[in-house]
């Protein structure tokens, strides 16, 4: 897909020698600096984007779902076939024909819609809604979990989130880092990931993917990139790794990483990859409905959807019920807006998952409400990323090496310079004592969007940026940030509160940043929480293939760690999913 080129950019043009003076108090900027987004550039959309997820295309056609009336006990597939022919006869462009519901997806002009609405064959015409990925949106941030405790040694591939849901206790009971013979690993279970596609060449997925389909380009190559080889957001790769990254098949993990990389909740599960999300992490409801029927055709037991938006319609409710009736459990992200659970997670046939951090506290972005069923790790989650597009960050100031996280989509490279206080980064004179020779900017986030703060301090001469954390619990929290994927940016990291306190005491000292390309990254969002539950469901079905979706769901809900007020509540649902306990609760 588009706009991954920023990883190769160091994002700054050289300052002219005569400009090595402080930017003026009036907010004048260093000459020759290129900083920030590029208006109109790098924003060409492919695949779904050619169909314009904004409501109308250049041809004046609107995307809709057309439902047809059933006659008696007529099967949906038969009704749809005749309805599709009638729809096409009006001149409308039919893009999908469904069999589980009596409906088609089409693009219609106002006149064609007028004709369809007055036909006795047509029951209703629904809006073809826009649904979006539920990882954090660029410019937002959320507190990251504490660092892993340095206590008993653990196998290097076991991430904090993996241990929080007790997955290794199911398939590595003795903790030796080797899958136990005969233990449930997800083997024999197909998990369908409806998302942005996958880096099919990533070492963690070798032997894991059994089928794939690109519903944007309409082919069987579901790589997370466009026809020109440009990578997408990496959202689907991150989600799939949480579910089924393979044991001992690690990619490049940086100077402090491990050769094994990481392992997923269900390392033996088979993956079905359905690419539906476009370059901006968006899709249309009609595309997801097509992907769901494909998952059914491929024999999926679990459908994992880290996307949402819009509202329930008769077509969507029937489609999700059809998957449940066919023996599938649909798991969906609750959403990141801090409000009510989004659709389709709120659908009665779907299991909604919210996010907690490593200390089992609700993530401040995680949606809540009566539809919430479970929570899972969704803050500072380490997982797979398209090869070389993640970044491992190391920082040193004087004789200290504070914990730092690369900003998502930050360019890589080595940078050094004087650590300069740039305050809130909210103006062109925010950096105290800035010069155009280059420096490392220290910024307190929150006053302005991350990309605006970056552009402001870069124009004053910053060659790298550190985002600090002034508030929150001492010792553990870092903030997750994301840069827009288009534009010119400097290498940038965030640090936790303890590191922020230390850096503020060392302003003016020399600082060094090194960002190395890796095959993994940290991301926050309910998008990351949902696949943990999907992986646990795969483990249960691996142990007991005869279970119904309701039995699997009941076991996970009954065995969850109760958080918050006693019993099910709107903030945590039934609680934190736990794989070992769920296995013990099976009927």
Automatic annotation (TrEMBL):
The active site is at 195 (charge relay system), 235 (charge relay system), 527 (charge relay system). It comes from the Bacteria. SUPFAM superfamilies: Subtilisin-like. InterPro entries: Peptidase_S8/S53_dom (IPR000209), Peptidase_S8/S53_dom_sf (IPR036852), Peptidase_S8_Asp-AS (IPR023827), Peptidase_S8_His-AS (IPR022398), Peptidase_S8_Ser-AS (IPR023828), Peptidase_S8_subtilisin-like (IPR050131), Peptidase_S8_subtilisin-rel (IPR015500), S8pro/Inhibitor_I9_sf (IPR037045). One of its GO terms (biological process) is proteolysis. Keywords: Hydrolase, Metal-binding, Protease, Serine protease. This is Peptidase S8.
């Amino acid at each position: 897909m588009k706009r991954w080129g920023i990883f190769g950019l160091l994002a700054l043009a050289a300052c002219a020698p005569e400009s090595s003076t402080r930017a003026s108090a009036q907010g004048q900027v260093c000459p020759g600096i290129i900083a920030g987004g590029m208006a109109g550039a790098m924003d060409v959309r492919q695949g779904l984007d050619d169909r314009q997820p904004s409501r109308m295309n250049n041809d004046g056609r609107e995307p809709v779902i057309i439902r047809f009336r059933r006659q008696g006990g007529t099967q949906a597939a038969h009704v749809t076939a005749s309805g599709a022919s009638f729809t096409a006869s009006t001149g409308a462009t039919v893009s999908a024909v469904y069999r589980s519901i009596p409906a088609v997806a089409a693009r219609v002009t106002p006149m064609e819609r007028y004709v369809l609405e007055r036909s006795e064959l047509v029951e209703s015409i629904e809006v073809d809604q826009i649904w979006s990925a539920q990882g954090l949106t660029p410019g937002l941030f959320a507190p990251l979990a504490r660092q892993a405790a340095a206590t008993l040694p653990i196998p290097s591939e076991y991430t904090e989130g993996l241990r929080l849901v007790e997955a290794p206790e199911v398939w590595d009971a003795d903790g030796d880092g080797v899958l136990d013979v005969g233990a449930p690993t997800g083997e024999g279970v197909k998990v369908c990931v409806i998302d942005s596609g996958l880096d099919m060449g990533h070492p963690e997925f070798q032997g894991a993917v059994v089928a794939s389909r690109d519903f944007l380009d309409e082919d069987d190559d579901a790589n997370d990139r466009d026809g020109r080889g440009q990578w997408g957001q990496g959202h689907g790769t991150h989600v799939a790794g949480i579910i089924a990254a393979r044991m001992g098949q690690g990619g490049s993990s940086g100077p402090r990483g491990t050769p094994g990389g990481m392992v997923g909740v269900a390392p033996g599960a088979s993956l079905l990859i359905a690419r539906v999300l476009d370059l901006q992490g968006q899709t249309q409801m009609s595309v997801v409905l097509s992907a769901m029927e494909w998952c059914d055709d491929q024999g999926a037991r679990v459908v994992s959807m880290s996307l949402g938006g819009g509202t329930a319609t008769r077509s969507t409710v029937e489609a999700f019920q059809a998957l449940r009736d066919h023996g599938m459990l649909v798991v969906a992200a609750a959403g990141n807006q801090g409000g009510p659970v989004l659709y389709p997670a709120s659908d009665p046939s779907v299991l909604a998952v919210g996010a907690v951090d490593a200390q089992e506290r609700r993530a401040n972005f995680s949606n809540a409400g009566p539809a919430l069923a479970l929570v899972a790790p969704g803050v500072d989650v380490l997982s797979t990323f398209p090869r070389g597009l993640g970044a491992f960050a190391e920082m040193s100031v004087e004789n200290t090496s504070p914990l730092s996280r690369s900003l998502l989509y930050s360019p890589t490279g080595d940078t050094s310079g004087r650590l300069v206080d740039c305050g809130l980064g909210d103006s062109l004179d925010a950096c105290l004592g800035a010069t155009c020779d280059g420096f490392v900017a220290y910024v307190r986030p929150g006053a302005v969007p991350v990309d605006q703060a970056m552009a402001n301090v870069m124009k004053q001469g910053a060659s790298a940026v550190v985002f600090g954390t002034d508030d929150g619990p001492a010792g553990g929290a870092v903030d997750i940030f994301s840069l827009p994927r288009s534009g010119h940016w400097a290498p940038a990291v965030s640090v936790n509160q303890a590191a922020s306190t230390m850096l503020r005491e060392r302003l003016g000292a020399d600082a060094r940043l090194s960002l190395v390309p890796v095959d993994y990254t940290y991301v926050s969002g309910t998008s990351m929480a949902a696949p943990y539950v999907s992986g646990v469901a795969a483990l249960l079905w691996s142990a007991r293939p005869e279970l119904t979706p309701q039995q699997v769901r009941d076991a996970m809900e009954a065995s969850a760690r109760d958080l918050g007020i006693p019993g099910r509540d709107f903030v945590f649902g039934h609680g934190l999913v736990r794989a070992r306990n769920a296995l013990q609760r099976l009927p």
